[in-house]
Design brief:
This protein has 495 residues and is mainly alpha-helical. The chain contains 19 helices and seven strands. It has a five-stranded mixed β-sheet. Helix 12 packs across helix 14. The termini are far apart.
Length: 495
Amino acid sequence: MLVDTETSVLRGRWSLTTVWRCVGLLIAVAGLAARAWLVRSPLGGFDSDEATTAFMGRDVAHGKFAGIVAGNNYGGTLEAYVYAPFHWILGNNLFVAKAIPTALWAVASWCLFVILRQLTERTWAIGAGLAMWVGGPWMAYLNTRFFLGYGTGLVCLFLFAMFVVRAAGFADGEGHRSVSRVLFFAGVAGGAAVWQHPLALATVFPASIGVAYELFRRGKSQSILDIGRYLAGLVVGVFPFLWFNIRTSFSSRTAPSQPPMAYLDRFRGVVAQLVPRSLGLRGLDGGWIFGPVSVVLFVVLAVSCLVGAYKLWATQRAVVLAALFGLPILAAFPALRVVNDGRYFIFAMPAIMVCLFVGAHALSAKRSRHVAVVFSYSAVLLVATYVSLLHSLPHHFVDPNADIKSAIHEINARGFHHVQADYWFAYRATFLSDGTVVASSLGPNRFPDIDSVALPTDPSVFSSTDPGDAARRADPRLEAVVVGEFTIFFPKVVA
């Protein structure tokens, strides 16, 4: 007698479906616990880039709107608009600042579930969404950082992929009005992703070629109009970035200077370092978590992605083109000389993850194996995350902001409220002190109301590794006080 694994009963009471749901819930909770551990570890410190996001949210709450990161010539600000209502109600709030990127990652995981539910089956899609949620050590770390442009950029790219897949799912001549609407929304999401970070072009550009090809291939009389709607959506989504460049004579063309690196070297770093870190196979120390087994798993995942691309080529060319050309395009950007935390992979991630899970679904040929395979991958990512955390981090909670809080206390105890500081102290101290210390940045300068407060006679604060530290220590007019990683230079009181 054949038994349906979806409805078979274990121990007389629990169905296999119920067991998998319980396993999925445990994986989801364990992934959240890993993030809590990261936030309360030395890696969980709040830095000035995150404080920049929070202060831009403060400005939005006070009616000052900006489309580009303050002091930059690129980078979207959607995180600031997400944070703004919380700031309006709660003021500076560290918990909210750390929770928002994790919530955005959860939204991206849900988008992957929605995409795969259309391309595979529901239970498999749930397992894939869980794997995306767990993410591995580097992705778990990244989505506890309140950076501008990354979390919302990832969500925009997954929404873009979701709309593109949805549009391709319509049969020829079916629901033309719906196709046009979905294509417009796909354009908006893709344009918004490029607004958040230009690296999103690694996905949006090849996918757009696929969208245009697919429309022309179907031979619809309205194909030109559909492409026009799609392009109109792109313009709407990227408009804040375009408007900024129009007003500043296209200043975004001037990229931050980067030490030279050959394209092939960047591409090698993308494949050998960036991708395995992002897929949870390299730990926080950069090494392969499970040694040779991690390398084998990396090869298996690469094969799964190629199989998925083959399976999807006939119906989802836009996704396939983005998966195949995303990494080579990504490596063309000079910023990809830095691959040590995996963050840049998110701009090629959606299409690659879709192909990977579709390919893995095809390779697990028997239906009864599907659920076990995808949930096993989620479990492997979870184990990899905790192995890396156990190896690299303390096994107990610490306050990762203890040094800067001690520095704030020392400044207040001496009766000072304004200081000059390097960038990495300035905005984070102003945020964490809730204004009891206003630290003006010596550069870069992002917020005039903060950076114009301190006077030359106020104390100055620098990282203990600052190149000018020795010269300042030799100045007889200054008293150097070392507090953790910072050195505070107080003006000596003349008797």
